[in-house]
C-alpha cells in the first residue's frame, strides 16, 4: 500500500496544483463565501468536489474515450459551460451596479439554499470540458497496465480529500469576519472583478477551438 501511494504522488501533486490555482470554481467559492457566509460556501465547495470526483470515475470507466471520439458531446459541454460562466458574470455585474445599501442588506439576509448552491457547484464543474482533459491526464498518469485494483480508489479518494481541503479552505478563509468587512467595504469593485473574470472565462471557453 505504501509503495502504491508513493507512485501516486505525482497524481496528487498534479491535482493539488490544479485545484489551488485560481479558476472559476475557486472564485465562485470566494464570491459566495464573502457574500453569503460559511455554510453557503461549503455547500458550493461540496458540489465542486463531487463534480470533480464524478469526472474522475467516469474517465476511469472509459467515458472520456467516447466523449473525445464524439466531438459533438464536448462541443455541447463547451457551450453549456461558457454560457453558465457568462450567466455568473451577469449576476456579479448586476450586483456591482447596486448602490442602495438597503438592497445590499436585503440580498445579504435572503434565505440561502445549500442544496441549490451544491447543485450550482456541481454544474459548474461538470459543465467544464477542461475537467475531462485534466482527469484524462491524471488517470493516465496514475493507471498503467498491470496496476493493482486499488489504484483507482486511491486516486479518487486521495484527490477527493485534497479537493475537500483546498476548496473547503477557500470557503472557510473567505467567510471570516475580516473577509466580510473587506467585501462590504469594496463590494462594487470586488463584484466587478468577478464579473470581468467570469465573463472572460466564458468568452474564452465559447471561442476556443
**Overall helicity:** over 70%
Structural class by SSE content: mainly alpha
Q: Please tell me the overall pLDDT.
A: 79
Proportion of beta-strand residues = under 5%
Count of domain modules:
1
Report the uncertain regions: 101-109
State the separation between the terminal residues, measured CA to CA: 42 Å
The topology string of helices and strands comes to HHHHHHHHHHHH
- Sheet bearing the most strands, described? none
Number of strands: 0
Number of helices: 12
* Shape category: globular
Q: What would you report as the Rg, rounded to the nearest angstrom? A: 18 Å
Task: Write a structural description.
Helices cover 84% and strands 0% of the residues. It is mostly helical. The protein has one domain. The N and C termini lie far apart (42 Å). Residues 101-109 have low confidence and may be disordered.
Summary, kept brief:
The chain has one domain (38-207). It is 84% helix and 0% strand. The chain has helices spanning 2-7, 9-20, 24-36, 38-60, 63-69, 71-97, 101-108, 114-126, 129-142, 151-173, 177-185, 187-207.
Layout of helices and strands:
Layout (H helix, E strand, L loop, with lengths): L1 H6 L1 H12 L3 H13 L1 H23 L2 H7 L1 H27 L3 H8 L5 H13 L2 H14 L8 H23 L3 H9 L1 H21 L2
Helix pairs in contact: 2-9, 2-10, 3-4, 3-10, 3-12, 4-8, 4-9, 4-10, 6-8, 6-12
Q: Keyphrases for this structure?
A:
single chain; about 210 residues; mainly alpha
